[in-house]
Protein: Outer membrane protein transport protein (OMPP1/FadL/TodX)
Amino acid sequence: MKLKYWTFLIVFFFNSLAFAQNPDNALGYYFDALRYTNTQFGGSARFQGIAGANTALGGDPTAALTNPAGLGFIRRAEMIVSTSINLTNANTSFINNSTPDSRTNLSINQLGVVWGTDRGSDADLRGTAFAITFTRNNDLNRQWSYSGLNDRNNIISSFLAGSGGSVTWNEFDDEVRNGIFTLSGMAYATRLILPDLNDPTNAQNQYVTFVPIRPTEQREKITETGAQNQWNLSYAINYKDMLYIGAGIGIPTIRYNRTKEYTEIPQANSPLNGLRLRERLSQSGIGINASLGVIFRPVDYIRLGASIITPTIYSVNDNYDADLSVSYNNYTIIEIVNGVEVPVTLRDLNARTILLQSQYNMRTPLRINGGVAIFLGKQGFISGDVELVDYSGVRFSNPQPVFNMESDNAVIKLIYRSTVNIRLGSEFRFGTFRIRGGYAMYGSALKEDIPAPEGQMTFITGGLGKRTDKFYLDGAISYRTSQSSYRPYLLRGAEPTAITDNTRLTATFTLGFFF
Structure:
């Protein structure tokens, strides 16, 4: 399959953001770079309640994900399970119209077992801990939609702009005969675009349409499901209750599905009654990383923590297909068949792509965490974290079938930047009961926040808990806000853009047992 056909296809089905024009030869994988690097704090309700500010805290199986040194505070064996309920709301503005949508999902947020030991206060090495944990750190479930009346252009305008001068008539004819693999190929097969027989250059790569620009209702519903999860195998030691050192291996996984249904209906007299484009994308992957962390406790009421999580190397598989249905108003055109003009009356036409599959490697960047926790005697603590993530460090490589991903890597360096994530949390203790609260701000991944600060998120969290010698039970609420942008098609900067205000309310419940 020729590279330019891959370019046509992926330029369209990866157009989920609107902050940059798609440069020559870039296939759109730089959108995945943001999706799979922009992970959030996950794990137990305790750490959810303090907005994930746990780098210097420890004492919870969730430490295996961010700073394995924190496992060194665990002195006996325990088992933990957490579940979450997510309510995601999206309010999308598109051509002076606002459309609300929502989605609710239930998930297992964490599973874990830790085997901790206590060797007594007389030993230099006073404890060790080994943990096997499963943590969800990026919930990708979302549903959103938009609609509006566009009188300036339509998706056919995009097909014309993307095909003219790039694909010859014979190449489109071959694609239709042998298996369609581009959106433009489906437009050609359903007569939305036609060869320009009056092109004076006779290059046989220019196209026209008989569908005029009319006020057109444009609407789309996008449903996304899936998550990033990570298994961790971690080990930590406790040296004199002063220095805690931990290391671990992480095995992250990706599961993501997206369905899109886009519709155009002309509102004035037109040969076209309407069209419907449906696209289906699924991605799955598995990777590996490593983590190293330390917590230093110079005095009882202060803990200082730091951790490094190496770049994650993923192997990712893509599957994509699409179909296009077009309804005409019994419109008659003249086609050239074997050199003879033949009238053809158009009614309902349909086209479908073949299933497109690819496999490639993705490397997400290094993550560096630093934190401090101040303990208020036995009354609780206040903690704070700073995390550094360089989104421009994502790289793609080794695609199969072979195609060039270097343009996407260049775009990543061009539009993404390093950002700082800040997390603050507190816990107050009343006997066996706990009250928690937190706030987090994740910085935008973009060098220029146009038209929206992609990747920027704010969190407000709170929680309650009860801890005894035999078990602990915690609950937490997290409220997240963010903004994202989207364009239904590309038209050299003239395409419409949808801006979505996203909110997510998450309730997490954790049950842990000591054994």
Summary: The first helix runs from residue 3 to 13. The radius of gyration is 27 Å. The CA atoms of residues 121 and 219 lie 67 Å apart.
